[in-house]
Amino acid sequence: MERALGRGGGALLVGGTGVGKSLLLATALERASDAGRTVLSVGGASWSSGARAKGYGSLGECLDSIEPANRSGSATDRPLVGVDDAHLVDDASGHRLHRLVAAGSISVLAASRKDAHTPAGIDKLWVDRLIDHVDVGPFDRAQLRDVLHARLGGHTDAATLERLWSATHGNALVLRELVDHAVEKKSLRRVDGVWWWEGLTHPPSRRLSELIRLGLRDLSLDEQELVNTLAVAEPLEMDIAAASGLAHAAESLDLRGIVAVRYNGTRVELRLAVPLSRMVVVSRMSDLTAQRLRRQVADAMERRGARLPEDALRVVSLRIEAGLLPEREQLLVAARTAVRRRMHELAERLCLLALRATDPGKPLLHGASVSDFGEGPEAVCRMVAHAVQRSDAPRESLRAALLLGEVLIGKGRHEEAEAVFDTALSAAVDIPQTEYVAAVHARVVNLAWRLRRVKDAGAVLDRAVAAVGQGQAGVLHGSRALIAMMSDRLRDAVDIGEAVLRAGDVQQTVTQGLVPVMVLARSELGDAAGALELLGRYREPSFDWDGEAAALLVALAARCLWHTGNLREAEEALATTRRYDDADRWPALLQTVLAGARLLRLRGEPQRAVAQLRQAVTLDTCHEWPVTRAWTLAQLGGALAESGQHAEALRTLVEARTVQREAVSHPIADDEIAYDRALVLAHTGDYSGAASAALDLADRAEAQGRTPTALAALHLIARVKENASYRFRSRARQFAARCGGATARVMSDHIQALAEADGNALTKVSRQFGEMGALPLAAEAAAQAARAHRAAGQRRKGREAWATCENLLRGGTFALPPWIVNENRGDMAPLTPREREVAALAATGMSNRDIALRLVVSVRTVENHLHRIYHKLGITERQALHRSQGQETPNRAVRLSAG
User: Average pLDDT for residues 263-283, to the nearest whole number?
Assistant: First the structure.
């Protein structure tokens, strides 16, 4: 806007309700007034300290008062007219405004709603290129993060950012009111120096509710009916709205930005554009109206027939909200769908309803509930025992109890889940064997992984196999292999799986539980080719597998393909599976997101990886071994570092370490976290710290047989630490020989070429990485080749190698890493890992006390660290840390002289 004013004419801001047009306009006018310009405002185009602006009730009155500017003067000498709600201006005044701007007499800043008709004279301003047309939309996730940082003065944790995005969809007005109210009520608060919000646990403030309501004013009866329906039953298919006579209402609300339209295959779905609108609309709706609308939508969906698994869940949920209780079998089917969709609160409610003795189809009564059996986890177990023993349908009650155990695992209530499983499986009630086996598998995984009771898990598994027989144990064979994996006995996991598969005639339920475990174990041991061969055997049968099992197989295939040097094929494999659910609200499997993000980083698209990982950090990982939230955060930190956002990468790394300390983890996840930690340290200049962390990882991974991980760690050391390649080249060759894959071979060759400073060998490594699709590594090796050739006096080859590097940089969205850019800089002492953390947190505006709480050290220790940091960085004040930490550094390729 300021650039537009500098050119003379001005700008027209166009956007939906609540995106911040008026605030932008007022801020621009205030700055112009502070700069000495004559500012005339029309309507609401002013600011709180509006004494510096002369206000007018109409544009005509404003234009009457203007003295024509000297056309020979500069653009900044012209009066500046600010017009809010320009769509309300009359046609005559619009044409008059156009003539004055065209004559160079005035400049104009105006704002208009995108769904409203703007007078022809104002439209003609931007059509004739006299002013700029500026579209103002909601914030994207990155912009929302920047706005929050400016508003709160500190770092906001990744999960909170995603929750605020989900609640507001970037609507500036709603975001501002929500954040202000949350800060006031202390639901958005600083914890160890980081802003944290658990979500909207109470109704929005009265002011926010009224602002949302103002955006829903002037609705026709049909439009109000559709808004009410969406508030209680979104997403709503367009054909249901059309059958109810609300098609025209949907079209008009879409134009006004009140309704968002989403295309899901052949389905057209409607939602309220601002998620918080649902809560506000429902709060002002009659209970009878809400019940009527829910029943209408449920009836319409049943008449049309369930097209997606989620449809049956929505019908059951709508009937319950309308006060009716579906049949037990419908409740259980819906609960299983809710578990797959990770809707654990809803799934728990459905399971508890299935345990209650109420006649289906009748109004929902307040029968036996958990509170009737006391307090605490024991109350749930007593309710389960009561339902199974005294119910008129003990089998259905037992099935509901076992499903409840799975739900409690998903909610992180692992001890309570084990108690429920123990109570339910002790009951002398027969249930289908497949459900019994599935429940035992869930119990065993919970015991072995979350509760770390591996011995107890083995005992439960032995009893279950004895009860059903070896031939009927089904997926429990996969459970045994999984226990071996959880105990970091990778070879045992492979051997157990091979023994089962050799028996022949293995059921599909067994293979889909067993094959992914074996593939992961083999790939971790360095046998990616064997893992891919196993995947090839089951590629055709996997088309009929459960959705999550099939998605897991694809994620593991991508992992193996990278190890064999087929990065592009890995990307194609991931593209064959749907990574998100049918509404794109959560991943079908988080491992597919992590695998996709890793591939994006390897291909040189870290910004896209950051966008994917920001969404993933809010998701629970309770059911998805071996994924942890700390793993997701660490990979986000690595992607941020690779995209040049070093300060945020360090903050995210600190957050990952905190989460890792507080949660159950696994060596595979710990390896992934350790690698990205070393990478972040390297990108932020702590090469010694990065090499030390990577060496620890290599030693640990080698001891447990995870050879590819050990080799990747040595490769990182050789890249970032000068002369380290000579020390580790022999060890790297041994690892590569054990792995046998193309990626391992090229990594080993890279280390060898660096040790010998062999420009020709580095050029070959660059070409091989490029053929794989790993463009950042190819560019890095090319830059190293250019350096080696220059050092050997081969200037022509050096220029050729550097030209290759530049071509790779031009073809991507990545930059050379800092250890290449800064290879000749020895004037600055490196910061230690702890100093890096302190500097990053101080750069966000955190106080010394907050930093001390975050890092669990004394305030005096923080002060000592800062003193050393200032000395090493050559700065004298805290504000300079913001610049020295590379805060939001643009990601551009750095050009070095080719010599």
Answer: 86
